From TrEMBL:
Species for this entry: Rhinolophus ferrumequinum (Greater horseshoe bat)
Subcellular location, record wording: Cell junction, Focal adhesion; Cytoplasm, Cytoskeleton; Cytoplasm, Myofibril, Sarcomere, Z line
Lineage, uppermost ranks: Eukaryota, Metazoa, Chordata, Craniata, Vertebrata
GO CC term (a single one): Z disc
Domain Calponin-homology (CH) as annotated: residue spans: 89-196, 256-363
Family classification: Belongs to the parvin family.
Biased segments, Basic and acidic residues type: 38-48
Major location (coarse): other
GO BP: actin cytoskeleton organization; establishment or maintenance of cell polarity regulating cell shape; lamellipodium assembly; substrate adhesion-dependent cell spreading
Keywords: Actin-binding, Cell adhesion, Cytoplasm, Cytoskeleton, Repeat
Single GO molecular function: actin binding
InterPro entries for the chain: CH_dom, CH_dom_sf, Parvin
Name of the protein in its database record: Parvin beta
Top-rank taxon: Eukaryota
């Protein structure tokens, strides 16, 4: 801040004071000049800020390397507040758990997606396991060039898998190798969707992205919303909407009547084995009752060695429900409009679709 101008005085003789130039009058004038100088300084500071960031929101806390941009270069990063969103955290956890489950036999443990997947090593193992293939890449690559070459090979294989879907692929070798978490999440969500992973991705997860760009030597920032997941049905490319979609969306009051009718139907047959159902979504989730019911409806006994009578893992439950689906197809029923994983995950709509599939064929059985 510039100081107030000083009064000049002669070193030989001080000037005479005018009558109205009292001590208080001089003090008031000095304060007024200081206030005006401070206002000018503040205005200059505001002008400087306006020049440095015109028409831009304030920059979030950036790492130094994020500000070292070339002219017209652009960099994106997740707004720190988005990382604290519970749904975002859930998505990251679900994907990490899924990768670790797939690669458990390889003794690979992923703890942090950006740090563990950027070099292509884990992505290579994951894709080979999911697609049951072998990629022609070097096993271990320490150099940046070697890592990017491996990533290129892995991502080309992913592209070949996803291209028939016509999906946009919002990732590149540079973004993955640059530890761009959003690009890595897009890649993993696409893989989980394509391979119909036995997981439930949280729906409608989005993040706020900070876009930083350098123009005319100055940094400019803006915010954009990046959608990571939509609805389960959209992501999994499910079937056309049916009566159950309408029921859940527009007539939830009738849902209890549908559940009651289906409970009456299944118990009519399960009672033959002294079994009884009171909760559709939970008691069919392990697939045991579904297998037994399918056999009863078609009047045969299902050998116990074909399914797990007391399943104690997610995979065993999925096996049971998948086996029940096979029995339904053998009986001439249409393919259920549900995934086994959704039934195991206690998705009521999926369970109702499967049971209604049986109900429509066998409802008039004595």
């Amino acid at each position: 801040m510039s100081s107030a101008p000083q009064l000049r005085s002669s070193p030989l003789r001080p000037p005479k004071m005018k009558k109205d130039e009292s001590f208080l009058g001089k003090l008031g004038g000095t304060l007024a000049r200081k206030k005006k100088a401070r206002e000018v300084s503040d205005l200059q500071e505001e002008g400087k800020n306006a020049i440095n960031s015109p028409m831009s929101p304030a920059l979030v806390n950036l790492h130094p390397e994020d500000t070292l941009l070339e002219e017209n270069e652009e960099r994106t990063m997740i707004d720190p507040t988005s990382k604290d969103d519970p749904k975002f955290k859930e998505l990251v956890k679900v994907l990490i758990d899924w990768i670790n489950d797939v690669l458990v036999e390889d003794r690979i443990i992923v703890k942090q997606l950006e740090e563990d997947l950027y070099d292509g090593q884990v992505l290579q193992k994951l894709l080979e396991k999911l697609a049951d293939c072998k990629l022609n890449v070097a096993e271990v690559t320490q150099s940046e060039i070697g890592q990017k070459q491996k990533l290129q090979t892995v991502l080309e294989a992913v592209h070949d898998l996803l291209r028939p879907h016509g999906w946009a692929l919002p990732w590149t070798v540079d973004s993955i190798h640059g530890k761009n978490l959003v690009a890595i999440l897009h890649l993993l969500v696409s893989l989980a969707t394509h391979f119909r992973a036995p997981i439930r991705l949280p729906e409608h997860v989005s993040v706020q992205m900070v876009v930083v760009r350098k123009r005319e030597g100055l940094l400019h920032s803006s915010h954009v919303t990046e959608e990571l997941t939509t609805t389960t049905e959209t992501m999994m490319g499910r079937f056309e909407r049916d009566a159950f979609d309408t029921l859940f969306d527009h007539a939830p009051d009738k849902l209890s009547l549908v559940k009651k009718s289906l409970i009456t139907f299944v118990n009519k047959h399960l009672n033959k084995l002294n079994l009884e159902v009171t909760e559709l979504e939970t008691q069919f989730a392990d697939g045991v009752y579904l297998v037994l019911l399918t056999g009863l409806l078609d009047d045969y006994f299902v050998p116990l060695h074909n399914f797990y009578l007391t399943p104690d893992s997610f995979d065993q439950k999925v096996h049971n429900v998948s086996f029940a689906f096979e029995l339904m197809l053998d009986a001439g029923l249409v393919k259920p409009k549900a995934r086994p994983e959704d039934v195991v995950n206690l998705d009521l709509k999926s369970t109702l679709r499967v049971l209604y599939n049986l109900f429509t064929k066998y409802k008039n059985m004595e």
